[in-house]
Amino acid sequence: xxxxxxxxxxxxxxxxxxxxxxxxxxxxxxxxxxxxxxxxxxxxxxxxxxxxxxxxxxxxxxxxxxxxxxxxxxxxxxxxxxxxxxxxxxxxxxxxxxxxxxxxxxxxxxxxxxxxxxxxxxxxx
Length: 125
Description:
Layout: E1 3-7, E2 10-13, E3 18-25, E4 32-39, E5 46-51, E6 57-59, H1 61-64, E7 68-73, E8 78-83, E9 92-100, E10 114-115, E11 119-124
Parallel strand pairs: 2-11
Antiparallel strand pairs: 1-3, 3-8, 4-5, 4-9, 5-6, 7-8, 9-10, 9-11
């Protein structure tokens, strides 16, 4: 099975930026639809952004608010999430996930069988 490891999380002030990276091993990420999700304490896990095999991208406005950019580099076997103008409400554990390229690109977290361990993002005022 593919293994996913997130990195790049940390603590920043409001307005700062972070770049999260998901490194795949075991299998090429290029054969998967890749998603970034986040979960804050007391809240359900929510979609942040998705990128499919051809490179089509979908963002969740209520989560990203147009401030995030998802990208993939198949040569490096990575999927990144550039996060700009961070706000306290962005504080959460961020997860990288993968699924086989079947079904709707907008499917939720339950359709992703492969997950990383998560990386903490904390945004303070």
